[in-house]
Design goal:
The complex is a heterodimer of chains A (160) and B (285).
Chain A: E1 2-7, E2 10-15, H1 22-28, E3 47-50, E4 53-56, E5 69-71, H2 87-94, H3 104-117, H4 123-129, H5 141-159
Parallel strand pairs in A: 1-5
Antiparallel strand pairs in A: 1-2, 3-4, 3-5
Helix pairs in contact in A: 2-5
Chain B: E1 8-10, H1 15-25, E2 29-32, H2 36-39, E3 48-51, E4 60-63, E5 66-70, H3 75-79, H4 82-85, H5 91-96, H6 102-105, H7 110-116, H8 122-129, E6 133-137, E7 141-145, H9 146-151, E8 160-167, E9 173-180, E10 190-199, E11 202-211, E12 218-219, H10 221-225, H11 234-247, H12 258-280
Parallel strand pairs in B: 1-3, 2-3
Antiparallel strand pairs in B: 4-5, 5-8, 6-7, 6-8, 9-10, 10-11, 11-12
The chains are: A alpha+beta (160), B alpha+beta (285).
Chain lengths: 160, 285
């Protein structure tokens, strides 16, 4: 079947089998930043923004996403055409929130959704925001710190 | 690949078309809201998915009868709805914060949650306690208590859930929800809920539920009955919790033993009733 997606701002018409998941479709067309993990909605490695909300792409049929906007981690940087990293990505790099990096795309996407809807989250709200993203390296301390710092930075630039 | 025999994915613009498809395709068709259960299904029987997302059934509305929630409304949309912020002291919002994680809540729909009837469902345990009604469409629209849906699953064959109504309650009514799980976001080992309506300080209406026993949530009528006409205090709460412990059917599964669950029923009912008692007496939590 034919479906239309707007992936990272680019409209695409794609062929997809009715049972294909969004995860498989995105990776098939080259968005390898969308990681294949548990494929059962537990780990969050495959998280993307569907319209403006974080979802596990392994639990979304590609057909369900037909006509919607999809943002992968590849689409976060340079949204203002300067090629700059998203503040959450910058904070993850600067504050050591990445170890093996496999969970990072999904966790960054989850954090972007959280901060878009709650610009000043408490640590508890940050924990809830990334509760669908498993990290087996870091113990989450650095990610929570990075998201807190990204939130501060985003609030400051919104005030300017 | 899951859904290996899936041949068509349809998003009708009219409810009658959706119903016709379900009737025509019979057991090879499934209705989906978020679709997260079916994505992983290995059932070779499923050939058609009927997606309800184009039927304008995503809404949370305050009505004179209560709060109406459309079938395709996601759990996140319910959680963020202003109409539910203060409904029974925010009990629905508090419960939804404990359901899965944001990526799941952004997909899971209210209708799908009620139709899937997972035994551990926190939503069903609370909605049963709140006396939720569901609207079904099978060519004609009818509203039935949610408890009837689980007493007779035949109500859904063929019919489509279009809405749930959380009834409006008068002042002097309070509700509470309690979940026991390994972490806040895990599937419940057991969950409990209660709704208490009072008149002159005495319990006039009582609904208690326990779910994840590990079966689907049910009402606990014997425990509720002991509270009728009485004030909520340490004695009456202890008695109700004790009866709930003795009368609730529990058993072992991979998450917990039946004996452990029996004790959780006692603790859960006691905590829910204590929480409601504090709310009704105006003591902050």
């Amino acid at each position: 079947m034919k479906i239309e997606l707007i992936v990272n701002g680019k409209q695409q018409e794609l062929d997809s089998a009715p049972g294909e998941t969004l995860l498989h479709l995105l990776r098939r067309i080259g968005y390898k930043g969308v990681k294949k993990g548990c494929e059962s909605g537990d780990c969050g490695a495959c998280a993307v923004l569907l319209d403006d909300r974080v979802v596990n792409s392994c639990l979304v049929l590609a057909a369900k996403a037909d006509g919607h906007r999809v943002t992968t981690v590849e689409g976060l940087a340079g949204q203002d055409k300067t090629g700059e990293l998203h503040p959450v990505q910058e904070a993850f790099l600067e504050h050591g929130a990445v170890q093996c990096g496999y969970c990072s795309p999904g966790m960054i996407i989850a954090a972007v959704d959280l901060l878009a809807h709650n610009p000043n989250p408490s640590d508890q709200e940050i924990k809830e925001g990334i509760s669908g993203n498993l990290c087996r390296c870091t113990g989450y301390v650095k990610q929570i710190e990075a998201i807190r710092i990204a939130a501060e930075k985003m609030r400051k630039s919104a005030d300017v | 690949m899951a859904l290996s025999n899936l041949k068509e994915y349809v998003r009708p613009d009219e409810l009658d078309v959706a119903l016709s498809l379900v009737k025509e395709r019979g057991t090879s068709a499934r209705v989906i809201g978020g679709g997260i259960d079916l994505v992983r299904s290995s059932s070779p029987d499923i050939e058609t998915l009927v997606d309800l997302s184009h039927l304008s059934l995503s809404y949370v509305r305050q009505t004179d009868k209560g709060v109406a929630i459309g079938a395709t409304t996601t759990l996140t949309e319910i959680l963020e709805a202003p109409a539910l912020e203060n409904y029974l002291q925010g009990v629905v919002v508090e419960m939804l914060h404990q359901v899965g994680a944001p990526p799941l809540r952004n997909l899971a729909s209210m209708g799908g949650t009620l139709a899937s009837a997972h035994p551990w469902s926190d939503v069903i345990t609370l909605f049963l306690a709140l006396g939720a009604q569901v609207t079904l469409y099978n060519g004609v629209t009818r509203m039935v208590p949610l408890s009837d849906l689980y007493a007779s699953r035949a109500l859904l064959s063929p019919a489509i859930i279009t809405e749930a109504l959380l009834p409006a309650y008068a002042k002097g009514t309070a509700a509470a929800f309690m979940k026991f799980s390994r972490t806040k976001f895990d599937i419940a080992i057991l969950n409990c809920a209660c709704l208490i309506s009072t008149q002159n300080g005495d319990c006039k209406g009582v609904r208690l539920t326990a779910g994840g026993t590990p079966q689907l949530a049910t009402l606990l009528p014997a425990a509720a009955e002991v509270l009728l006409g009485r004030r909520l205090n340490q004695t009456s709460i202890g008695q109700a919790a004790g009866i709930a412990r003795e009368t609730t059917l529990v058993r072992d599964d991979l998450r917990a033993s039946g004996n452990y669950r029996r004790e959780l029923v006692y603790a859960g009912v006691k905590r829910c009733l204590t929480c409601v008692s504090r709310q009704l007496s105006g003591v902050s939590q």
